[in-house]
Write a structure and sequence with these properties.
The complex is a heterotrimer of chains A (149), B (500) and C (325).
Chain A: H1 8-28, H2 43-62, H3 76-96, H4 98-110, H5 118-139
Chain B: H1 2-15, H2 18-36, H3 42-53, H4 58-83, H5 92-103, H6 107-142, H7 145-161, H8 167-181, E1 184-185, E2 192-193, H9 207-225, H10 244-265, H11 271-286, H12 299-314, H13 316-322, H14 328-339, H15 347-351, H16 353-384, H17 389-408, H18 411-430, H19 434-457, H20 464-467, H21 469-499
Antiparallel strand pairs in B: 1-2
Chain C: H1 2-18, E1 34-38, H2 45-61, E2 65-69, H3 76-83, E3 91-96, H4 97-106, E4 118-128, E5 130-133, H5 142-151, E6 157-160, H6 166-178, E7 183-186, H7 190-199, E8 204-207, H8 213-217, E9 222-226, E10 251-259, H9 264-279, H10 281-289, E11 293-294, H11 299-320
Parallel strand pairs in C: 1-2, 1-3, 6-7, 6-8
Antiparallel strand pairs in C: 3-10, 4-10, 4-11, 5-8, 5-9
Helix pairs in contact in C: 2-9, 4-11, 6-11
Classes of the chains: A mainly alpha (149), B mainly alpha (500), C alpha/beta (325).
Chain lengths: 149, 500, 325
């Protein structure tokens, strides 16, 4: 009999769960397990890790005879650009301040959309920078670095 | 009984003075604003306003700060409904059906029922505080570590109901949430667990980052990939207020939510958090057609929103009657009180009746102001959804980034949120629902802590969970819930067997 | 392209409106807002105290003193942020003993050096702990308690706000001094611990005076002793543990530190501002109501105090065998 994955979503979810469970178990080796009375920091993670692995395996195995839809197609550009944009914001906010970080976030993440209009984005940038500086820095008094200087 | 009326009369006399109404308004307006903004919460705002309150009369200061707190609960549901961003942990549930309603052009009714349900819940729970605050405070004493553990078990069972898909997978998601909740310093041993050497992780993964990533960012990414034929929100705006049918569907959930929220809000250890989840679970179980939930059922907004607001009000009970904060916001309120030279605690009620009853009355005034202020705002919010998505989404991202960064000023937290966005996107593709995970993440640490504490206190005797009546009751309730959940699956299996 | 230039000019115009002050050289200190980093979450006592101090300093310095909460990792995150800041007087550290003389004994490695990365500016306040007991504990005085604990080793449950926290270490020095042993039950902060103490789930707790005071008055809690060297001014009936065990001292104290390399002039300027806050009788009274005693001193006094505290906690922690991480 040929083994066939009938429910790819569940199959890969199961693998993901198993992976998280295994990481937990491996890392938790370093923590004291303790006893049921004096549970160490490793007790709960270890038990949960094994439960995770077991349930993950069950999910994957079940997908061999349970039918399910295929995994929807993934588009790379939106996820890449949105993530990069947010990462850029995080990387720039401390050294260069809010204005530069916002510009980077807008330009990069807008590239993830299907229409990229630079003028529109720059206008939005000016508008929202003014709003957020006014709102957060002056209004709510958050201690943000605003300009690179 | 007469005494209550004279007390409330005294309270309203204080709360309705023009100056106090003004401070109440400032408080709830500011609260709504920061509640709508993702990430920025009442804690940071109240902390920043604390020095300003030094120079205010004590009652005005407390009325304003309390207004910020419950105003933020109101605002939090707005961004949950409009853009799938839970501002507060209790708004996670509102995302499930509220955002779906918004996508179907029913943002108006969703916002409306949230506001009206919250107002009703706020009224009832304010009355409850006025009538029964001291005896209600005793409930907190009945909940020791064993009871909290059992309550968390019940909460986790409830978490499974949040999902619409396969039972096994939602259990897996709860467990995964529990695993993520382990990250950080272990309370009992001080050991840094799963921090991989990053001191930024020593207090655990931030809730805001997870919620924003899994709900907000992943939603943005999958909206973007639909490309040209994307229609995130139906172009027809629909009505602004709930219809008669909406009210018919909602009044019972509102009542039940109010009851649940009022009760759970009293418990200092995360009780208020549980209330919206529990309410959702109850509504889904009671509904004639549970499959509508998660697809824009108005009951799934009405119940949890009422529960959440009732819980926010009754969480003042431990503060007012015991002087003990049940959450960080309450800790700030204590700070504000002590700065004003008021020792918080049971004596406030007798020694400063004007302050005590004035504050309680102001909560009702504040709730009224919130409804009056928010109902006309609905039209404005809906207008916001007509902004082209290509301009809407960078703006949402910016407010999220600022919100996350403002919490701790750590770029690391921004990176984490981005990472959770990717994970959330993968979850969408794999058909894994994040709501049970979030609940596991919130409840897990509380559960572990109390399990270990209970075992230490009983010196290792696990029967402590079964011999204490409240704990036993909660565990029996969990078992019944599990059976109810398994029953439809088993029945289906049997029917399949018959057919073959 | 012209449109683009126009957008840019609008941008720069907006920049002019929002820009803070220009170059900061050759101006008298302080020429811009000063950050006071608090390594604890907003809302705790340390935060309240820091904000009160910052407000007074703002008046004196003529520049905004902004409190910045950098909580986490038992003050390590906040301390590290200050240690890596430029020593220009615009970043100050509102610290407790945890960051300066306890962490180095608990953690095998710290990202900052508690002795070399900071210079002392001035002490601000002391918050002595009170030893609280649930009424059901069969001991009505500190001496009774020790006798009871000796007769029933390990029977009493002592709540703490977390492993390795200052109150937990206070329990350890009490155990070492009196030769008794308690079961330490760890909570996440003192609030949940207090609820369980009031409910009688646990027997004992070390806490500041402010939250338990009304419950002591109403008889729901017993205050058996204070953990400072002397009795508390507003509660002369509660004995000090030091009366039974000379030298016993466990409290949280607060001071201001600056990054190492900060000039002497700036340090003494800030110290003078702190003294202004401390000398205000209204502040003294207000803090006393919260269970804290304002207590100042010169940077040199603080340096000497830090040195002796570091040694003392090193011995206690080694003896108790507590290790985190």
């Amino acid at each position: 009999m040929k083994i066939r994955i009938r429910h790819p979503q569940d199959f890969f979810s199961g693998l993901l769960f198993i992976a998280f469970g295994l990481i937990t178990i491996i890392v938790a080796q370093d923590y004291k397990f303790g006893t049921a009375v004096r549970m160490g920091p490793g007790y709960f993670p270890m038990v949960l890790g094994w439960i995770m692995v077991a349930l993950g395996a069950l999910t994957s195995l079940r997908s061999l005879w349970l039918d399910g839809p295929p995994i929807p197609k993934m588009a790379l550009r939106p996820i890449l650009m949105v993530t990069l944009g947010v990462l850029a914001f995080g990387a720039l906010i401390d050294p260069l301040g809010l204005v530069v970080a916002t510009l980077a976030l807008f330009v990069i993440s807008a590239l993830g959309g299907d229409e990229f209009k630079i003028k529109e984005i720059l206008l939005l940038f000016v508008l929202l920078t003014a709003v957020s500086v006014g709102l957060f820095v002056y209004g709510l008094g958050l201690t943000f670095k605003v300009w690179p200087l | 009984m007469m005494e209550i009326f004279s007390n409330l009369g005294l309270g309203f006399g204080v709360a309705l003075s023009p100056m106090n109404v003004l401070y109440c308004f400032i408080g709830v307006a500011l609260g709504t604003l920061i509640g709508v903004l993702p990430g920025i919460g009442p804690i940071a705002t109240i902390a920043m306003l604390l020095p300003i309150t030094f120079n205010l009369p004590p009652i005005a200061a407390l009325i304003m700060l309390a207004g910020i707190y419950y105003g933020a609960q109101y605002g939090g549901s707005t961004s949950a409904i409009l853009v799938n961003l839970p501002g507060e942990s209790s708004s996670v549930v509102t995302c499930l059906d509220g955002y779906q309603m918004a996508r179907q052009g029913r943002a108006g009714p969703a916002l409306g029922i949230a506001a009206l349900g919250s107002f009703f819940a706020g009224t009832v729970s304010t009355l409850l505080i006025a009538l029964f605050a001291p005896p209600l405070a005793e409930i907190a004493f009945k909940f020791g570590p064993a009871e909290y553990f059992s309550l968390m078990v019940l909460g986790l069972v409830a978490a499974v109901v949040l999902a619409q898909g396969s039972l096994l997978k939602s259990i897996c998601m709860v467990i995964l949430g529990l695993l993520w909740g382990l990250v950080g310093t272990d309370v009992s041993s001080g050991t840094q667990r799963f921090t991989f050497g990053y001191s930024e992780l020593s207090d655990g993964i931030g809730f805001v980052g997870i919620a924003m990533g899994l709900f907000g960012f992943s939603e943005i990414i999958s909206n973007l990939e639909m490309g040209q034929n994307r229609e995130v929100f139906t172009s027809k705006v629909g009505r602004l207020l709930p219809s008669l049918d909406d009210f018919k569907a909602s009044w019972k959930p509102v009542l039940r939510g109010t009851g649940l929220g009022s009760f759970l809000g009293i418990l200092p250890g995360g009780g208020a958090l549980l209330s919206s989840f529990t309410s959702y679970m109850v509504e889904k179980k009671l509904a004639k057609d549970p499959s509508r939930f998660g697809k824009g059922a108005i009951e799934g907004v009405a119940g949890p929103e009422s529960a959440n607001n009732a819980g926010a009000q009754t969480s003042f009970i431990p503060l007012l009657t015991l002087g003990i904060p049940s959450n960080p916001v309450m800790a700030l309120m204590i700070g504000a009180m002590t700065i004003q030279g008021i020792a918080p605690g049971p004596q406030v009620m007798t020694e400063r009746p004007q302050l005590f009853w004035g504050m309680i009355a102001s909560m009702w005034v504040g709730n009224l102001l919130l409804v009056v202020m928010n109902l006309p705002m609905i039209g404005l919010w809906i207008k916001l959804l007509t902004v082209p998505y290509r301009m809407l989404f960078p703006s949402i991202l910016l407010f999220c980034c600022i919100g996350v960064y403002s919490l701790s000023s750590l770029p690391f937290d921004v990176y984490m949120t981005a990472a959770f966005g990717v994970i959330g996107y993968i979850f969408i593709k794999l058909g894994c629902e994040p709501a049970p995970l979030i609940l596991g993440f919130i409840l897990g640490p509380v559960m572990e802590e109390n399990l270990r504490r209970a075992m230490l206190l009983s010196r290792g005797d696990p029967s402590t969970f079964f011999t204490r009546p409240i704990s036993l009751g909660l565990l029996i309730a969990s078992a019944i819930m599990l059976l109810l959940m398994a029953a439809p699956v088993l029945r289906k299996k049997r029917q399949e067997a018959f057919q073959e | 392209m012209t449109r683009f230039v126009r957008v840019l000019s609008i941008l720069l115009g907006a920049g002019g409106v929002f820009a803070l002050s220009g170059p900061l050289f050759a101006q008298a200190y302080p020429a811009k807002p000063v950050r006071l980093v608090v390594p604890y979450a907003a809302g705790g006592f340390s935060d309240v105290l820091a904000r009160a101090l910052a407000q007074k300093m703002t008046e004196g310095l003529g520049q905004q003193v902004v409190v910045e909460n950098r909580p986490g990792a038992s003050t390590i995150i906040g301390a590290d942020a200050v240690a890596k800041s430029p020593p220009d007087g615009y970043t100050l550290f509102f610290s407790t003993g945890t960051a300066l003389n306890i962490n180095q004994h608990l953690f095998s490695k710290l990202p900052y050096n508690p002795e070399k990365d900071f210079v002392p500016v001035g002490k601000v306040a002391v918050l002595p702990y009170v030893l609280l007991a649930h009424p059901a504990v069969p001991a009505n005085s500190f001496k009774d308690l020790i006798a009871y604990a000796k007769a029933n080793p390990g029977k009493l449950n002592f709540a703490t706000p977390g492993n390795g926290t200052a109150p937990h270490l206070a329990i350890k020095i009490l155990e070492q001094a009196a030769g008794v042993s308690f079961e330490s039950i760890h909570y996440k902060g003192n609030a949940p611990a207090t609820v369980d103490l009031l409910a009688g789930q646990v027997h004992l707790l070390f806490d500041g005076l402010v939250v338990p005071e009304p419950h002591i008055k109403s008889g729901k809690l017993k205050a058996l002793a204070v953990a400072s060297l002397k009795r508390f001014p507003s509660q002369p009936n509660i004995p000090a543990i030091a009366e039974s065990y000379p030298g016993f001292d466990a409290s949280t104290w607060y001071c201001v530190m600056a990054p190492a390399g900060t000039s002497k002039e700036i340090v003494s300027r800030i110290n003078a501002e702190i003294q202004k806050y401390l000398n205000d009788p209204g502040n003294k009274e207000r803090m006393l109501a919260q269970g804290a005693i304002l207590e100042g001193g010169t940077p040199e006094q603080l340096a000497a105090y830090l040195k002796s505290e570091t040694e003392r906690w090193g011995t206690v922690i080694k003896k108790a065998g507590i290790k985190l991480d």
